[in-house]
Each structure stands twice: as C-alpha cells, then as structure tokens.
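Today's session is about reading a structure prediction critically. Students often jump straight to the picture, but the first step is always the sequence itself: look for stretches that repeat, for charged clusters, for runs of hydrophobic residues. Only then move on to the predicted structure, which in these notes is written as discrete structure tokens rather than atom positions. Here is the chain we will use throughout the hour.
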Amino acid sequence: MKKNIIFVVNPISGDLDKTSLIEAVQEFATTNNFDLEVYETTGKSDQKEIQSLYNQYQPERIIVAGGDGTIKMVAEAMENFDVIIGILPAGSANGLSVDLNLPTTIEENLKIAFLSRYIEMDMICINGKKSIHLSDIGLNADLVKNYEESNLRGFWGYALQAYNTLVDSNDPFVATISTNKGTTVEHTARMIVIANSQKYGTGVTINPNGSMNDGKFELVILKSLDLLLLGKIITGNMPIDSDDIVIISTDKATIKTNYPVNFQIDGEYCGAQTSLEIHILHKQMKIAIP
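Below is the predicted structure for this chain, in token form.
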C-alpha cells in the first residue's frame, strides 16, 4: 500500500527557483513508492488549505521546503494532528535546519525528510505567538527590522546592518525578569535572546546548553554588546564565561522593559514591546532528524 506525503513548498522563500527542487522531491517519492501531493503556499489562508489537505490524504509526513517561517506555519496548522514534519532547507532563514544539523545536499535531506527517525520538539509561546527557534528583544531585533527595510541581501547586507545597528543603537534597556521559580531579577541589557535551541541561522552559537526537547527554554541576557563581542558572536566564538552574559533556564517567564524595545520571532520583526509573557509548549511538533 502506498503512503501519502504532503509536500508544502514556499515558491518565493530565499529568492530561489524551486522547480528543480520540486522535481527532485517528486522523483524521490515515486522511486520510494510514496503518493505525493504538492502544495505551493500563497500567503493567503495557507493553514486552512494544509489542514483540509491533511484531512483528505491523512499523510504519514508533511515535507516542508522553505525557511523557518514556512516551517512554523505548517507546525501551527498541524498543531492538533499527529504527523511528522520533514524539512528541506530552502529559505533565507534556515536556523532550525542548522540546529538540527541537517546536511547540505538535497539527496541526503530527502532521505531524512521522508524516511528518517524524529524527535518531539518543544516550541515557545511568546505573547500568544509561537517560536520554534530563537526570538530576541533588543539589538538583534533592531537588526532584523533594519535588514527587512534595506536593499542589500546576504551576509554582507547583514554585516553592514549589524554595524549600522550598533552605531545607531538606543540606550541599554532595563529588563525585569520574573520566572515561575518565584525569583525576579533586574538587568540592564542590550539584548535578550529567548532560545529554544543553540544557534542562529548564520551558524552562530548563542545558547550552548540549549536542547529543543527538554521542556525548557533559555533567556540569554547580553548586558553589553560592543563591536568586539558582536564580532565574537558572529564568528561563532560565544564567550560563555563572560560577566556580560547571563543565562537563565526555565519553562515560564515574564520580561518587562523600561521603554518599548524592538522584538523579533524566528527572524520576523514583531514591533516594539514593553512586556513579554513566555512559556514552553512541550513536545509540540514531531520533526525528522538525521
């Protein structure tokens, strides 16, 4: 008996043409006796469309070609269904695939997405929105906002905006952080990362002790951030023992800031905020891993 697979592809993610990718997926499905239903996202009512496809085909897996945003959209659509999600990294932000150590070639990723084992991964809920990877308030969110508004793409576009963001940055903010252990701490910070995992999509390790299925998230508080520290973080040499960095591990927290600070979830700018309510959603999503 053939098994059904739904293949969700974001045709415009990462500015790449997806024709050859779709062909490769179709070929792999045929060779391995899967019935494949291809769905291209439009940005309009995608979640409903995917849910009705799920009800129609009852697939064993949903394969997603896109970046973190597309994966998150599919995960939210499948929240109440028991299905394994496979990833073919094809977005501009592929932070999750970096964290899962997915390989670089399409052939290897096809095997993992269709056939490999899976983990049950946590998600984080922040002010009612879901994060699968890394969110932050402060300098990096300024950067995401500036990058979204600029014309230069890729690493250099990112590096230029990183420099501009630092030069033009606001004063440090004061964050009052309460956790469910009853403790409240206050830190003056340039940036606070809310991390379910370890690395940014650029490969930068920001949270070395993070695990995506331990029922906890980490708050990584960067108290000062000069060009030297930023350079170290960007090149992947996160100085963990620094006095400038505090890491809190918990499953629930509130962050309040003394003025509205820019905030982003999984690479998407979400406006300036003064209060974040955060809790873990344990084992929310089954995801195929190597």
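Discussion point for the tutorial: The chain has eight helices and 14 strands.
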